[in-house]
Amino acid sequence: MANDKFDPLTGPTSEILVSLCIPTFNGSGFIRQTIQSCTSQTHRNIEIIVSDDQSSDDTIPIIRSFDDDRIVILPSQERSNPASNWNRTINAAKGQFINFSRPTSLHRVEVPISFSYDDPPNRVRQLLIGAALEIPAVLNTPPPDVVVVSYGDFAINYKVQVFAPDFLTGDGIQDELNRRIWYLAKRHGLTMPYPMQQEVPYESTAPTPVEQGVASLQLLKSTPGFASLSSERLEQLLAECEVRAYATHEVVLHRLMPLDGLYLILSGEAELVLPDATGRPCSLGVLLRGECFGEKTSLLHGRIAETTVLACDDLEVLVIPYERLQEVLVESPRLAVDLNEVIQIRQRAVAKVLEGGLQGRESAGTPLPESV
Question: Which of 52, 68, 100 is the last residue in one of the domains?
Answer without folding.
Answer: 100
